[in-house]
Design brief:
Order of helices and strands: HEHEHEHEEHEHEHEHEEHHEH
Strand order of the largest sheet: 2-1-3-10-4-11
Number of strands: 11
Helix content: 40-55%
Distance between the termini: 86 Å
Strand content: 15-25%
Number of helices: 11
Largest sheet: 6 strands, mixed
Shape: globular
Amino acid sequence: MNLRLAAAARGSLLRGTGARLHWCAAAFVAAFLATGAAHAQDGYPNRALTIVVPYPPGGSNDVFARRVARSLGDALGQAVIIDNRPGASGNIGTAMVAKAPPDGYTLVAVSSSMVTNAAVQPNLPFDAIRSFQPVAMLARGPFVAAVANDVPVRNPAELLAWLKANPGRFNYASSGLSSSNQFATEMFKALSRTFIEHVPYRGMGPAVTDLVSGQVQLLLASGPSLLPQIRAGRVRAVGITSARASPIAPDLLPLASALPGYEFELWWGLLAPAGTPQAIIERLNTEVNRSLGAPEMRQFLLAEGALPAPQSAAQFAAIIAQDIPRWQKLARQQSISME
């Protein structure tokens, strides 16, 4: 009996020791993996990064992404490559990044159009909030309102009077269905109770081309898209969508001077795939914000119709989350859809 009890005791001891050894081994593996991940982040980046621009070259997303890529590459000591992937109002390139490995090496340059798309497209190939980790806002700026040269208006009051006198006779352009250009113009229409027909294009380039040729009469678009044509005299600026005068175009009156309460501001920023380690997000946010604080960057952005907008990744995420329901309300009011 005593021998059996002794054997049982030895077995219990061995089983307990085995369990402790198993737990210790598991803890060691977990600690090793965590340490390895930390070291991997400490060594970030050790190869080139890619910023996907989900629009053709030449638009504001492309212009700003290329300039920030140079500064970011210098700060990180690695090349930052721009990869234009246009199509489906920016959704093709954006979806590609949503599915990319969350390792900090693939980012997407987006603007307010991402949230206006999300406001009217329930079946996007990504979730505008859950599929991404906001990295940094790059810039904010109003749209410039421009008309074809044969349109007889030169300021917001004349634009408003012209629209009221010609309901449904003329067209406005946008870079695509559910784009921020469409939302900005539809907001103006809603507040002014005017009507001008929408003509969506596949990108800002062809929209500007048809404004220059007079195929469409009005376009609200970002500075990088319109200012070169305005400076060349090919189209005429008549106002700006900020609530007050803006340093990007101090000689232009706000549309709100003729339509109180009207304001539309565009933003640009960088997103990473959801699940990207927070340490990498913070590193990228710090470097982008540092570059935005440089006087030469402010000068560049100002010349392109925007102002630097450094802020934390969390602040940027909050703006995205607030914008979507805001634009959903306007979409219902103005019957904005993808059809």
